[in-house]
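Need tokens for this chain, all 297 residues.
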Amino acid sequence: MADTPASVRALAADRRFARLRPAGGGVEFRVFEATAPDGSKVVLRTPVGGRFQSTPNDRHVDTRSLLRWEYVVTRHLDRLGFPVAAPRELVLGEPDVLVSDFVADDGRGADQVALGALLLRLHRSPPPPAWPAAAQGLPAARLLPRRIADRFAELAAFAAALPPAPPGERLTAVLASRPAGRLVHLDVRAPNLRCTGGAVRGVLDWSNALIGDPAMELGRLAEYALLPENGLDYEAVLAGYAEPAGIDSAAFWIYRLDAAVMLALLFNSEASHAGLGPRAVDRLREVHQRVRRELEY
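Here are the structure tokens for all 297 residues:
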């Protein structure tokens, strides 16, 4: 456990957690598994590096804000009976650590129709009494045009002959007319789902979540489903969702553009991939053309 932060080891010792071991992680956080004194399993989530991080997709990341949001949103959803890794404790220190329940997984993935029904339930539930960290203090109708433009500019360093981002004011005008006020996860894919017998027992990692239009979730899913490793059947999810309002709108394609430029930048920078990178840029160009047609500019 030499690579485990001293603060994590100290927290585990203080709480008398046993069998501490690495259990995965991503760009911003890593996760450890342990056993509590009562025999239950817990996970400890802590930043990969320092509190403040920067990636091409997100230049100003405050991991403490993300952990605080994760604690608030999962506590809120757990009280509503929604399947999440229920939080136990948020310990602020150097680095911060979020302790949550361990959620088992049998490796067989989610029933896709049931997943769609679960997302509809999420979108019908009241949002938590806090603003998502990823929102940067902005409503989604203003945030998305700004981050689309920022990510197009970042991607230009990796991809030649990239078209310019659509006019931000046009995007904002379209998105401002859409429904809002609903919690959307925006990172629903196999690695963030814990399932047994096809039923989702835990939806993990709420770092990307926003408060906004449910169609934003469906647009993100549509782009994620194009990647087999995400384990998504978009049509089956839609069948379970049963109310796919907005998927024929111009806003829906703006939401897909937001996802496509994020993926293109991801696969050409921080998670560079020789095969996925060029294909993601090609896909971005396709979605960009569709947005141009929808907005007629």
